[in-house]
Amino acid sequence: MITLQCKLKPEDYIKAQYLHMQPSPWLKYLGITLLSLCLVVLVASAPSSVSLTTTFSAFAPIFLLGLLYAFILFAVIPWKVRRIFAQQKTLHVEYQTAISPEMIESTSENGTMRMRLSDFHKYKVGKDLILLYHSQALFHMFPRRFFASEEDFKTFLSYLEANLGSPKR
Length: 169
Description:
Oligomer: single chain
Strand order of the largest sheet: 1-2-3-4
Radius of gyration: 22 Å
Largest sheet: 4 strands, antiparallel
Strand content: 15-25%
Order of helices and strands: EHHHEEEEEEH
Low-confidence stretches: none
Shape: elongated
Mean pLDDT: 87
Helix content: 40-55%
Number of helices: 4
């Protein structure tokens, strides 16, 4: 049995949102391939008779979309996540979680949640946390810092794998 004393921080919630939004590997590789293709076309067309400014102006929309994406990813999302975290008071409450090979039970001043691990939909593993999904959109987060040791973290992963299979993307 693993027992955790938990208190979430806004940074935990931001990391959870980034892990939740992480695309599946094939989509990531498709994006990298498309960007690489654009760069190859840009470099290949530079020495031709078309002027460099014409080439850059043709790729300006792609560059602007990239800047917009970076702004949303690194400015808008953290701002929105911090705002939601501030609004949802239940995320600020300290709680205790007991994890056994088949069951998870969390208790706080707001109540108790008890659920079989096999009843969860899926889980994702990131560098700093685990997301345990009730459904496609609702998850519990378990930051690595909640675990007393790396062994407890790995034990929790083994419980999840035994009940849900390998982590999903």
